[in-house]
Specification:
The protein is α+β, with helices and mostly antiparallel strands. The protein contains two helices and five strands; from the N terminus they run E-H-E-E-H-E-E. The chain has a single domain, classed as Alpha-Beta Plaits (2-Layer Sandwich).
Length: 91
């Protein structure tokens, strides 16, 4: 299982970006979360099969219809302690 942390910046809060991430994650069968950060970015943790994770990360540039993504910073991440995350949640 591959896990990546992504920091997405641009117009990504208040435009259904996280909800759209959740929908796309379910379609691809990846797990993790998307949450708003105080600085206006969205943090995304995505875990799953490498090809699905890479497809999801490429999709982060699209986002919701109302979003405008300016940057996606990707770094390696370990899944949270214990079992790998199940499902995809928003916060």
């Amino acid at each position: 299982m591959l896990c990546k942390k992504c920091l997405v910046s641009g117009r990504v809060q208040g435009v259904f970006y996280r909800a759209t991430c959740q929908r796309r994650a379910r379609e691809l069968g990846v797990h993790g979360h998307a949450r708003n950060l105080p600085d206006g970015r969205v943090e995304v943790l995505v875990c799953g099969e490498p090809s699905a994770v890479e497809t999801f990360i490429a999709w982060l540039w699209e986002g919701s219809a109302a979003s405008r993504v300016e940057a996606v910073e990707v770094s390696d991440a370990a899944h949270p302690p214990g079992e790998p995350p199940q499902g995809f949640r928003t916060a």
